[in-house]
């Protein structure tokens, strides 16, 4: 019993340190990126800032396909079979490389087809999409997460963030065109790839090896998560695409400013979720009571962080938009007041994914996200013309609520997750000692 308590204490210590590194990274990135992002947005103006975000929406959707929905599964596999880490990671990296190259080509052809006269958008999408190749570093990042050693990837990401910040300042000083700013995404991914790769080589336990049998097994396990992730990114990104199609690139820029401020707090719960994931996965096979308590604790953190952050952002919305982005973006305030509350439901969904993977209920994720995507598209079609950006914000909020709360109620196997969330909201069992 004493050994178990000691082991748990060591795990919690590693968890807290790992979370500290992740939160520290996000604080640095938030402050630095917020300042640089605001300077960039002011320089580009709503229209060009909209082009950057419009193109990035397509790239993010394609990027989900490249990720293959494997994040939680890779961590679980590495924890359960540590001696096969090299084979698992090597296989996934080859899979990511192939899908990235194919996706870049398909995306460029697609943009050329739907926007044949918008050469600037074509170049922006191409330059941003090249980042998909270098984002293979995310696989190594998952290995660091599984070992609760995120400090290594944090160091690399902070170096990349700082470097790209300096790059953007130089672009502003030299009156660079919007295409050069689009290249920033790829430069940041490339720097992360190089530094995280170097740090992994200094800490690695096994060499990368590709195995077709592992690739087949991982695809079989992950396609539910892939479809779910694709649906999620559609209902979270389709708003900008539809704004670009039905309104203007300027409206995309204004809405993007609102989203950037609304998401300021998200880095904290995401860091907690990423650090808690290995502990929750491991506790599943050890003790059911502890396992369910950990899940409820994560939900509670997400809910109350979200309420506090959303209230704070709502109170200072107008002041924040004016200071950061200037009067050209003042129309971002009304949608900001709406979408900031949807962020809570979005993060609850991310937290529940850990439980979904542990319980092997992956197949339901695509149904949740599919319902959200369908709801978002339909609401956007109904609301975007009469209400503009505000209509898009309402559609986003309702869709996120549907995915997090309404959709799981339709499926018996996952309905218990709503009970965990309700217990978390009431703080039931969150502070009890086992």
UniProtKB/TrEMBL annotation:
It holds the Pfam family Polysacc_synt. It is a multi-pass membrane protein. The chain crosses the membrane at residues 21-45, 51-74, 94-114, 120-140, 152-174, 180-201, 221-238, 253-277, 298-326, 332-352, 364-383, 389-411. The keyword Transmembrane helix applies. InterPro entries: Polysacc_synth, PolySynth_Transporter. Signal peptide: none annotated. The keyword Membrane applies. GO terms for cellular component: membrane. It comes from the Bacteria. Keywords: Membrane, Transmembrane, Transmembrane helix. It is found in: Membrane. This is Membrane protein involved in the export of O-antigen and teichoic acid. It comes from Clostridium gasigenes.
């Amino acid at each position: 019993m004493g050994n178990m308590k000691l082991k748990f204490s060591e795990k919690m210590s590693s968890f807290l340190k790992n979370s500290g590194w992740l939160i520290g990274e996000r604080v640095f990135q938030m402050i630095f990126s917020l300042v640089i992002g605001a300077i960039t947005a002011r320089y580009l103006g709503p229209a060009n800032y909209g082009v950057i975000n419009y193109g990035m929406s397509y790239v993010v959707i394609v990027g989900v396909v490249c990720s293959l929905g494997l994040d939680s599964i890779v961590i679980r596999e590495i924890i359960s079979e540590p001696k096969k880490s090299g084979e698992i990671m090597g296989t996934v990296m080859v899979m990511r490389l192939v899908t990235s190259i194919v996706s870049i080509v398909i995306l460029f052809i697609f943009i050329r087809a739907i926007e044949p006269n918008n050469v600037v958008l074509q170049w922006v999408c191409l330059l941003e999409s090249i980042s998909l190749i270098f984002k293979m570093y995310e696989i190594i990042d998952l290995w660091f997460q599984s070992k609760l050693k995120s400090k290594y990837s944090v160091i690399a990401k902070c170096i990349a963030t700082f470097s790209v910040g300096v790059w953007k300042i130089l672009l502003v000083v030299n009156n660079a065109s919007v295409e050069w700013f689009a290249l920033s995404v790829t430069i940041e991914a490339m720097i992360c790839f190089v530094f995280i790769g170097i740090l992994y080589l200094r800490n690695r336990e096994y060499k990368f090896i590709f195995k077709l049998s592992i690739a087949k097994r991982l695809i079989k396990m992950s396609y539910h998560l892939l479809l779910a992730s694709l649906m999620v990114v559609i209902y979270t990104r389709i708003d900008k695409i539809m704004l670009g199609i039905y309104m203007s690139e300027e409206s995309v820029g204004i809405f993007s400013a609102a989203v950037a401020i609304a998401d300021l707090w998200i880095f904290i719960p995401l860091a907690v979720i990423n650090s808690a994931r290995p502990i929750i996965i491991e506790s599943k096979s050890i003790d059911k009571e502890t396992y369910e308590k950990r899940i409820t604790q994560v939900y509670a953190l997400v809910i109350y962080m979200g309420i506090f952050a959303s209230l704070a952002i709502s109170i200072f919305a107008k002041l924040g938009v004016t200071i950061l982005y200037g009067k050209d973006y003042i129309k971002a305030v009304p949608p900001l007041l709406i979408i900031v509350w949807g962020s809570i439901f979005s993060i609850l969904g991310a937290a529940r994914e850990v439980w979904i993977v542990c319980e092997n209920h992956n197949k339901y994720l695509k149904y949740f996200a599919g319902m959200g995507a369908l709801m978002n598209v339909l609401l956007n079609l109904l609301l975007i013309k009469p209400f503009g950006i505000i209509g898009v914000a309402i559609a986003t909020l309702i869709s996120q609520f549907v995915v997090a709360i309404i959709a799981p109620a339709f499926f018996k196997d996952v309905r218990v997750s709503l009970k965990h969330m309700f217990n978390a909201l009431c703080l039931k069992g969150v502070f009890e000692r086992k």
